[in-house]
Design goal:
single chain; 280 residues; alpha/beta; Rossmann fold; seven-stranded mixed β-sheet; two-stranded antiparallel ribbon; 11 helices; 9 strands
């Protein structure tokens, strides 16, 4: 181990060293230990970015929006950035249709959609938020966690309460307030309450440009694909949030596209989420 002598970091006669002398001494000490570095002041924006754990290649415009929505989502910054860029792509290329999210928790992803559209000066699109607003629906035996095969029924049962489930629970009034905070026109926001198997397709837009599915389980994901994917326009975006997280979500997605003559390519966002663009 390298011995750090007081003289290495002290000024003459033990006085406090100047900034330049301290910098020079630290560099010599680091070099002696096999390192080389330079000292520089980190700009305020970079400090904020690092505190948020946002990669350096993500634009300041995204970071500003992400700061407003990140406390209301469980998804990764990569997922939120992909959502941001997807909305920008759809708007820039005039891809028509409304934007849909199934399984919204506290509304963070829909907030990112609304904030991005608003930043682009486009508040003409309707945003649909489908959720029980009473927590997770009951999983089935197929809905095991992908990373370790852990069944989810007992976990769901542990969170079951009278009239709601504490797992991913966020009340409608809370989500409505979070969406209102974005400043997006309230008449363009549609909160559809209940299990998707009962609310879809009765309450669904005619054209969809962005379809984000985050209800985790096999049965709900397959139902959403059966009824909403046909409404997704050509060049529209499909995001499956839990394709890599739960086997039920993956199975539903794979089964649905196995029966189609023109399947979609799904690219990896992170270990859980996938994205594709409709090409038919």
């Amino acid at each position: 181990m390298t011995e750090v002598r007081r003289a290495d970091i002290s000024g003459a006669n033990g006085q406090k060293p100047s900034r330049g002398l301290l910098h020079q001494s630290l560099r010599k000490l680091a070099f002696r230990m096999g390192y080389n570095f330079s000292l520089r002041k980190i700009p305020q924006y970079d400090r904020e970015r690092r505190a948020l754990r946002v990669p350096h290649d993500m634009e300041p415009e995204f970071v500003a929006l992400y700061q407003q929505a990140r406390s209301f989502t469980l998804t990764s910054v990569e997922c939120m950035y992909t959502l941001y860029q997807t909305v920008r792509y759809l708007q820039a290329n005039n891809v028509p249709g409304d934007m849909v999210e199934c399984g919204v928790w506290r509304g963070g992803s829909s907030m990112m959609i609304a904030l991005t559209l608003k930043a682009l000066g486009d508040t003409s699109r309707d945003i649909y938020l489908y959720d029980t607003y009473a927590g997770m629906t009951r999983p089935e035996s197929v809905d095991v966690r992908s990373q370790d095969g852990m069944e989810q029924v007992s976990r769901w049962q542990a969170f079951e309460r009278d009239g709601y489930n504490e797992w991913a629970h966020a009340a409608l009034d809370e989500v409505r307030a979070n969406m209102r905070a974005t400043g997006y026109p309230e008449d363009k926001l549609h909160f559809v309450e209940g299990e998707v198997e009962t609310t879809i397709p009765a309450a669904a837009p005619e054209q969809i440009s962005l379809l984000r599915l985050d209800t985790d389980w096999y049965r709900s994901t397959l139902h959403e694909l059966n009824h909403l994917y046909p409404k997704l326009v050509r060049r529209g975006a499909l995001i499956i949030d839990d394709y890599g997280a739960y086997e039920g979500s993956r199975k539903a997605t794979d089964e649905y596209f196995a029966d189609r003559s023109n399947p979609i390519f799904l690219g990896r966002i992170d270990e859980a989420a996938r994205i594709g663009f409709k090409n038919e």
